[in-house]
Amino acid sequence: MFFFFAALIIAIACSAITIKTLVGYSDLKIFYKIPASILIILGWFAPLIMKFLSSTAILSGNLYATVSHLLYGLMGFVFILFIAIMLRDIVWYIIYGIAKMTGRSGWHIHPKNLSLLGKANCLVVLFSIAVSIYALYHGYKQPEVRELTFYSDKIAQDMTIAQISDLHINRATPLLRIRQLVNDINMLNPDVIVLTGDTIDDNVVLIEEHLKALKELSAPFGVYSIMGNHEFYNDIYASKRVLNDHGLTFLFNGGLHINNTNVFIAGIPDLGTMYERVNLWRTLGKSEKKDYKILLSHTPNIIDSLSPGLVDLVLSGHTHGGQIFPFHLFVKQANRYLSGQFRVNGTDLFVSRGAGTWGPAMRLFAPADIALIHLKKKNKQPAS
Known about the structure:
The protein is of the alpha/beta class. It has helices at 2-24, 30-44, 46-54, 61-101, 114-140, 175-187, 208-214, 229-233, 236-245, 271-274, 280-283, 327-334, and strands at 144-152, 159-164, 192-195, 223-225, 249-250, 254-257, 263-267, 292-296, 313-316, 340-344, 347-351, 369-377.
């Protein structure tokens, strides 16, 4: 319910601002103003429209996927357009203010000059289209592989872990993309594969073929997954059952030793939705002091509540690295650790930008990634 009202308020406010700024202050004929306004409204209301369509049987199959891609693509475009308009107007008024103070102002650069404003609107729309195409390209592009190495004297044998996060699989996700991702991960030949939440973003019954593709993930020491907030939204118990049924060990306040080594891997529920059910002592209860402990937590902010030495490495996702700039700035307010590698109170943290997208299949200055993590004994660390 909170999501609905928050999305509704944002959609109404942003629609009104975008329409008034782009269309209201122009000399466009009503014939153009009406369809432009409708497209803007559809873009901002895309999440609510898709929420309604996904909960009904009005659309299905390829038609549902097409509508989803179009609406969310429009949402991404109007977001970029909104930011572009705001930035343009800020710069424009600053320039006009400076010109006014120096006695060089005039109607030829006035922000309310409709002729000039019409040309500026045309340019900002073309710019937004170009940026949207660029963002779509990077949204559909296969994730890049990021290699990291962590050293510890606790590690008895070298090990590689492939981390993939935030797939957000739903009925509109191209099945071919999931199959290609699975193939790319398997080609890395990791010892272990971990999925750090938001793997499922739909009714599990409607994405059965996608989940069958995940079953092809292969690693000699196992494939492990944890809960993200979107598994919670789409029935955590169904998600847990179906992931286990497809060969992924679902870690839920629990852990185990990898292949009888002293590398211990554990997973907890998502902090944002089920914090009261996170139990770190139970999660790490089977570990020993000598173990190299890896904690899978969808939300990276868990790092701030960990006692020094409790775990050695935390692997997270959730943030998408901001996904579409400048949304990074807002995501950063909710998540101190946006993406990349950190060390906090003696514990290593890696935050993946994720391999999928939520909403628009766009990425702008936040490329998708798969992490290939090398664990090595400390005495093998190269001299700096």
